[in-house]
């Protein structure tokens, strides 16, 4: 039923729960797993020129960590690191949907709240856009009530 699962991750707590759910689903169906991180080009372009390079570096680091989390979770879950990882740049929802289409994905898994906080009423803005655009099923996994998202902690 599910041969290819795409996990859209931004490294947030909500995305980490989506990773766990998607890996369970993939293991059940012996599906190929693709982990995708998208650098939001709009976020980069709207940043002042003098800090843009630093922001791009920070986003690349975040993406690397997010994809490493998926790989490590897959090893722990199924004793397998057979995960396809990819980084794209552009509008996150558009890139995720296009990647899923390009790889003939059967399902896309995403968290409902990402690094940018609570933009939507029920879903984060990227998750909501994926649900609206994707022609395949979307598994949206919410963050547990009261769970702390490290990206939004006050230091």
TrEMBL record:
Organism: Haloarcula pellucida
Membership in a protein family: Belongs to the universal stress protein A family.
Pfam families found in the cross-reference section: Usp
Protein name: Universal stress protein UspA
Residues of the UspA domain: 1-142
Origin superkingdom: Archaea
InterPro entries hit by this protein: Rossmann-like_a/b/a_fold, Universal_stress_UspA, UspA
């Amino acid at each position: 039923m599910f041969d290819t699962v795409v996990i859209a991750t931004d490294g947030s707590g909500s995305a980490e729960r989506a990773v766990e759910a998607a890996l369970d689903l993939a293991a059940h169906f012996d599906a190929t797993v693709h982990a995708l991180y998208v650098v939001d080009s709009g976020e980069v372009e709207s940043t002042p020129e003098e800090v843009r390079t630093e922001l791009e570096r920070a986003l690349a680091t975040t993406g690397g960590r997010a994809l490493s989390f998926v790989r490590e979770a897959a090893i722990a879950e199924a004793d397998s690191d057979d995960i396809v990882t990819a980084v794209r740049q552009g509008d996150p929802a558009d890139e995720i949907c296009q990647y899923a289409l390009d790889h003939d994905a059967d399902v896309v898994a995403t968290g409902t709240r990402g690094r940018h906080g609570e933009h939507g009423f029920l879903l984060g803005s990227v998750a909501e856009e994926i649900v609206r655009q994707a022609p395949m099923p979307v598994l949206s996994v919410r963050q547990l009530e009261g769970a702390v998202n490290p990206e939004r902690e006050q230091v």
